[in-house]
Amino acid sequence: MVKKKVLIVDDEEPIRQLVSNILAKDYTVLVAIDGEEALNMARRQKPDLILMDILMPKVDGFTACYTINQDPATRDIPVVMLTGIDYELNKKLSREIGAQGYITKP
């Protein structure tokens, strides 16, 4: 059976490593360090799910999520925001730009 692919997008190495370790048994894990790399990987790799940080260099998570949802080649890929920021405004904005969920990092 082919494992589903999960793209983890976070500029913090410890977070990428932690989430990768948790998911690696059941999923093929892809990683990107910023929104720009995530956009390229989403187009090339077509992951089944993207876990996206919000605050990152180059292209932030909101912009990357919005772009993924506007691109016909990637708009069917669900994006879940994975962030250390637990603000209602960010949750609302995440929904408005098409994120399927919002998880707050511990």
UniProtKB/TrEMBL annotation:
One of its GO terms (biological process) is phosphorelay signal transduction system. Keywords: Phosphoprotein. InterPro entries: Bact_response_regulator, CheY-like_superfamily, Sig_transdc_resp-reg_receiver. Residues 5-106 form the Response regulatory domain. Gene3D superfamilies: 3.40.50.2300. Pfam families: Response_reg (PF00072). This is Response regulatory domain-containing protein. The lineage of its organism: unclassified sequences, metagenomes, ecological metagenomes.
